[in-house]
Amino acid sequence: MEDKQGVKIGMPIIGGLIAAILGGVVWAAIAAMTEYEVGLIAILVGVLCGYAVVLFSNKRIATVHKIIAVVFALVGILLGKYLTVVYFTSELFTDVSLLTLVFDGEMIGAFTETIKEYFSAPTDWLFIVLAIVSAWQIPGRMAKTSMASEASSSDQAPRA
Predict the structure, then answer these.
(1) What is the pTM of this model?
(2) Nearest Cα to 131, choosing from 35, 23, 58?
């Protein structure tokens, strides 16, 4: 996948997807272990998606890469919330496995119907905004750092 300027987006999308899934699973695992949702994990998801997009783009960053990182940070947060709900639901119904519930149509429907409840606290929105900011800034900062190191290494005169 390429856009008109030759910016590759296929691999960054794959990297963002992997990071979103990993971040969502980590979110749910921490919530399951602590029996509490730790909002700071949302920022971790944003950072993880930003880094993944940079790594999968070979540090050639354009605005579209920042958008990809933000979108997948939001996907990771949504997945983390969903997996957390699935985990606690599976604790209530011991006759149903966790994996069965993840892909259950009724579970997905119930989650989408009540999604507003899972994002109702002001702190939820604060951490979502911080995750978005992290996902947006990480690619730009990493690109500037890599360009600066490339420039400094190419500016040096050859040694005799």
Answers:
(1) 0.85
(2) 23
